[in-house]
Design brief:
Oligomer: single chain
Helix content: 25-40%
Mean pLDDT: 96
Number of helices: 11
Number of domains: 2
Low-confidence stretches: none
Largest sheet: 7 strands, parallel
Number of strands: 12
Shape: elongated
CATH class of the largest domain: Alpha Beta
Length: about 325
């Protein structure tokens, strides 16, 4: 039996890893190369697919309702916020992700931002390039032996951050996660305790209705004065206007941001005036190896679904 697999969009050089996985199976791979711009185009492209692979195209309820015999929608990502999971579940379409492809990269990137902020590395680099070489420009810096690290979301990546920093000298590592009860490497606390005690907060939670704008003006007011915030998870977790306000009021000592409300350039300019903010363009996940791993694991789960009945990372079991 032949199967049709549609790839709506992606930001990778090619689909060679997928084709390598599919070569021994009767699978027709249809690549739209990111040309789909409207919901109607997406409906036309996917309606007769047996599996849909998506990156940024939004699989809305209307798109899903028009799928004729689709068995799987899988995203090139850990998060599945572009997929209407409820609509897929109602139609008995499996939804899957790849939650384990960039754990080392994202945790290392978060740690790099934490250490760069607390040691003011990027700020001092700019000062030296401008001819300012006095150490007094860095005042104040507190040693990390006196800092408490707070982790929001204690899954694979949050746990990796705690494990890697356990022997780095932080005074304490604490975490908030209503779905986890794992005190290895970090101590579980409630959200208000994490806000009050943390000198650095790093975010590793998914984007959901419950976490949308989780860090808003009221939350920034509750954070420990002079704390840092780092976000390598999802831009939707932070109210960017509220963060701009908190930085302008000097409630926070700085921020390290890899993810934003918008994937493009739009909106990031609000943080340009702040020398205590580090901005990276959603690259925490990236390494040459993570590219290949993500694409390969997506393709493997397509094969698992079409030939064995379900993918390894099925998130909406029914």
């Amino acid at each position: 039996m032949s199967f049709k697999v549609v790839v709506t969009d992606y930001w990778y050089p090619n689909l060679n890893p997928e084709m390598k996985v599919f070569k021994d199976y009767d699978i027709e791979l249809v690549d739209y190369k990111g040309t789909i711009k409207t919901e109607d185009q997406l409906i036309g492209a996917t309606k007769d697919a047996d599996a849909v692979i998506v990156q940024f195209c939004k699989m809305t309820r209307r798109v899903i309702d028009n799928l004729v015999h689709c068995k799987l929608i899988i995203r090139y990502a850990i998060g599945v916020d572009v997929i209407d999971v409820q609509a897929a579940t109602e139609k008995k379409i499996m939804v899957a992700n790849v939650p384990d492809y960039c754990i080392d990269e994202v945790s290392n990137h978060a740690i790099a931002l934490i250490l760069s902020l607390t040691r003011k590395i990027n700020y001092m680099d700019r000062q030296v390039r401008s001819g300012n070489v006095k150490f007094e420009l860095a005042v104040p810096i507190k040693r990390n032996l006196l800092n408490t690290l707070g982790i929001v979301g204690y899954g694979r990546i949050g746990g990796a951050v705690a494990r890697k920093l356990k022997d780095f000298g932080f005074k304490k590592i604490i975490y908030f996660d209503p779905y986890k009860n794992n005190n290895k490497y970090a101590e579980k606390v409630n959200f208000d305790t994490l806000l009050a005690e943390s000198d650095v907060i790093t975010l590793h939670a998914p984007a959901t209705d419950k976490t949308y704008n989780m860090f808003n003006m009221e939350v920034f007011k509750k954070m420990k004065y002079g704390a840092y915030i780092v976000n390598t998870s999802r831009g939707a977790l932070i109210d960017e206007e509220a963060l701009e306000w908190a930085l302008s009021q000097k409630l926070l000592a700085g921020a390290g941001l890899d993810v934003f409300r918008s994937e493009g350039f739009e909106g990031k300019q609000r943080f340009f005036p702040f020398e205590n903010v580090i901005l990276t363009p959603h690259i925490a996940w990236y390494s040459e190896q993570s590219f290949e791993e993500l694409q390969r694991k997506v393709a493997e789960q397509v094969v698992e679904t079409l030939y064995q009945g379900k993918p390894r990372n099925w998130i909406n079991p029914f």
